[in-house]
Amino acid sequence: MRLSLTLWRYFGMRFLLSAIAVFAGVLGLVALLDSVELMRRTSGHAHVTALLVFKTSLFRVPMVTERIMPFCVLIGAMSCYLNLSRRNELVIARAAGISAWQFVAPAVVVALVLGAVATTVYNPIAAYLLEQSKTYEAEIFGKREFGVQETGFWVRQRSPDGQSIINARSTLEQGIQLTGVTVFTFDHDGRFQDRIEAKGATLREGSWLLTDAKVYPSNAAPSDFQSYTLKTNLSPEQVRESFATPETLPFWELPDYIATAENAGLSSAAYRLQYQKLLSRPFLLASMVMLAASFSLRFFRFGGVQTMVLGGILSGFLLYVLSKVTEDMSKAELLSPVVAAWAPVFIGGLTGFLVLLYQEDG
């Protein structure tokens, strides 16, 4: 029996609403937890308002939740099909001659559309909001006190004055601007000269412009500077290689950045991997729907619902582990970015397809 347009829309809308509800719930939960943690960190800053904390947290949450979007689709699809089964709608549809493939097809199409929107629209917005949140973080935390141990971002540079090691709490504009900066300078023989603490730094042609800086020489009293120039041999491409992370680059900017990095002789494996991951996202969401359907189309009266749900969650977790392994291998240049990004999609989709094929056709 051919699935009517009305039923097609019905199954598609049920899945869409379920996936959006799960994603919205996760988004709200992550925002709440992140806001509480940020309030704890800023409890000693009298100038920080609750509104600023909330905006900072809200603006960086979209990038965090983007990583768990496939699991939201998995849980949303399982919830959709289990509810249809609990209300005997699947039983009635099966009695009318509708196959499992016809149940799954609307959700697969909706997942493909969701993935395309997530890649082309949601990802650039999340990247932009993350940059805004870093601006708010710089306003909150300002200049870092010496002695506070944080990992942050590190880069080593050379200049006509000698060598320097730069540490920054956070970055803006893919490393062109730094906040919470600490610099250790050395002469040409490697002897320590100065320690510089600055609120921020901006890369100029051949130099860093440090703002609100305090210089601690090795053999003199500290000095304060409204602005301080530190020479560098680093180019914007080299700085981005050290400070930028692939996840913070918008989808539409990745091809240009990859080309620029390769022309400069820098490694672009992580960025090519991120680009392929974003390209494969629609198909990854579709494979999650296939996995969810293979574990949730069983009728309630047959029992074993808890086992089905656990099996679906476990399969999603194993797929996540596989994706992390392939990503690490790709970043180490042991695996092609194309293979690393598309292997979880292929394995997840094929697993769901084979299980559905066995269940439907025996």
Structural summary, described in words:
By secondary structure, this protein is of the alpha+beta class. It has 2 domains: 5-141 and 267-361, no CATH class; 153-244, Roll (SH3 type barrels), CATH 2.30.30. 61% of the residues lie in helices and 17% in strands. The chain has 10 helices and 6 strands, in the order H-H-H-H-H-E-E-E-E-E-E-H-H-H-H-H. It has helices at residues 5-41, 50-67, 69-86, 89-95, 100-141, 236-243, 254-263, 269-296, 305-331, 337-361, and strands spanning 153-159, 162-172, 177-186, 192-204, 207-217, 223-231. A 6-stranded antiparallel sheet has the order 1-2-3-4-5-6. Strand 1 (153-159) and strand 2 (162-172) form a beta hairpin. The chain is elongated, with a radius of gyration of 26 Å. It starts with a helix and ends with a helix.
